[in-house]
From TrEMBL:
GO BP of this protein: phosphorelay signal transduction system
Domain Response regulatory span(s) in chain numbering: 8-124
Entry annotated with the keyword S-adenosyl-L-methionine: no
Origin superkingdom: Bacteria
UniProt KW keywords: Phosphoprotein
Modification type 4-aspartylphosphate: residues: D57
UniProt keyword Phosphoprotein, yes or no: yes
Record-linked PROSITE patterns: RESPONSE_REGULATORY
Pfam families for the chain: Response_reg (PF00072)
Protein name: Response regulatory domain-containing protein
InterPro entries: Bact_response_regulator (IPR050595), CheY-like_superfamily (IPR011006), Sig_transdc_resp-reg_receiver (IPR001789)
Native source species: candidate division WWE3 bacterium RIFOXYB1_FULL_42_27
Length: 129
C-alpha cells in the first residue's frame, strides 16, 4: 500500500475555518498538510517548501489564485504536483481560465464535502483513501 505521508498537501485558503476542516480531514486520511492564509504566504510556501498537491482557493487577499496559477505556468519548476482549485467561484469563464493556467482539477466548495476533497486528493496523488 502506498505511503500517503509522502504526499504533502499545501492548502492556500484565506478562511481559517475552511482551511482547518480540510487540513484535519486530510491529516486523518494520512496526508501531511501545510497551510497558507493568503496568496503571498502561499507563494512563498510554493517556492520554499516541499509539497506534492496544492489545494488553491481563487479569491485570496493580495495575490489571488489565478495569479498563483499564472506564476506556476510561467515558472514550471515551481509546480511540484497537481493543483486542485477549491473555490466557490462557479463561473465558466473562471473555470476555463484556471484550466488554461494549469489547474488539474476544479472543485466548488459549496458542492463538495470534505470527504470528496480527500477523495479528489487521493485521485490526483495516486493514493486512495
Amino acid at each position: 500500500m502506498p505511503d500517503k505521508t509522502k504526499n504533502k498537501v499545501l492548502i492556500i485558503e484565506d478562511e481559517q475555518d475552511i482551511r482547518t476542516i480540510y487540513a484535519e480531514v486530510l491529516q486523518n486520511a494520512g496526508y501531511v498538510v501545510d497551510q497558507a492564509p493568503n496568496g503571498e504566504v502561499g507563494g512563498d510556501k510554493i517556492k520554499n517548501s516541499e509539497w506534492s498537491i496544492l489545494l488553491l482557493d481563487i479569491m485570496l487577499p493580495g495575490k489571488d489564485g489565478l495569479k498563483i496559477l499564472k506564476d506556476l505556468k510561467e515558472t514550471p519548476e515551481l509546480k511540484k504536483g497537481p493543483v486542485i482549485v477549491l473555490t466557490n467561484l462557479n463561473s465558466e469563464h473562471i473555470i476555463q481560465e484556471a484550466f488554461k493556467l494549469g489547474a488539474d482539477g476544479y472543485l466548488i466548495k459549496s458542492e463538495v464535502n470534505p470527504d470528496k476533497v480527500v477523495e479528489e486528493v487521493g485521485r490526483f496523488s495516486g493514493v486512495q483513501a
